[in-house]
Amino acid sequence: MKFSKKLISWYLQNKRTMPWRETKNPYHIWLSEIILQQTRVAQGLPYYLSFIDTFPTVFDLANANEDDVLKLWQGLGYYSRARNLHITAKYVANELQGVFPSNYKDLLALKGVGDYTASAIASICYDEPVPVVDGNVYRVLSRFFGIKTPINTTAGVREFKELAIELMDHDEPANYNQAIMEFGALQCKPKSPYCIVCPLNDSCEGLKNGWIDTLPVKLKKQKIKKRYFNYLVYSINGKQTILQQRKGNGIWKGLYEFPLIEVEENDRDSIMSNAFFQKMINGHEYKITQYREEPIVHKLSHQHLYTRFYIVNVNKLPALTKEQKIIDFAETHTYPVPILLGNFIEEFFKV
DNA sequence: AACGCGGGGGT
DNA sequence: ACCCCAGCGTT
Hints:
single chain; alpha+beta; Nucleoside Triphosphate Pyrophosphohydrolase; 2 domains; 5-stranded mixed β-sheet; 3-stranded antiparallel β-sheet; 42% helix; 14% strand; elongated; DNA-binding; metal ion binding
């Protein structure tokens, strides 16, 4: 039997039930695909349900405030996905009368939709025979065909894409694409795949040569940067605090946070002598206490954030920058914040 | 072509 | 610790 037909056969018997597999509504499929980028099904599923519930149509999403979209996205990470989601919703609602593009090429033009996502939507919604090449597909193909080309190089991306095009099932694009991904997720998984009971184990080059544990080949690991964050949690007359929105292009763009002092070395002197800190407290009576002695270490894929919170008690309003807003304690939890701050707010303000 | 971007789960 | 996850946009 053909490679693709074996996978589809496996898929029809082993696929998990998921809400986005019950529909071909492009709005729902698009939403699920954006949410699932670099995200496990178990983590993304509750977000998918709450987005569908809160924004039943692309018009509802388009008419929302960006802050509300980010708030619903809070905790899912890679927040540019949420901002691009909102941009694309407005584009589809306002420029395309709510009708999504119906082919790979036009889908690719949407913000936040790359090669993978355009292929996924085009194949699932419109039966266009364009192959998806995600992390699962790299693993399945590299093992089955014994391909050692690193997957995160230009040559690797091109080689696997060309192979995927050859293998594409033109009779059932939707089933085939979901089959190879589901197969990679459940059967040909990264560690301890079920080769003994695999329907492809009689012709798998990786298994035959003992390469299962070394495929796919991926070049270098990014090294982790350490950063030292010091948040000033203002308590103004014990009722209000200050939040500011992150600008620029770094992490958490668009999310809110307390006034932040980032230092190179995490010693108390460098924080207290920091120019920004002096400016914030200059001319005001204040009492400052450190929330916890030990920093909270927030681990991201690419950096570790050693974070301290300082409670700054004041009786007068400090001078605010343009980005800063006075917020009632009870309202702090309505702003989209990184999960690191969300946890703190929940604990400290008891909201 | 290389890099930055979250948070969670598995081993 | 380290890897991976239905990747994408920017530089």
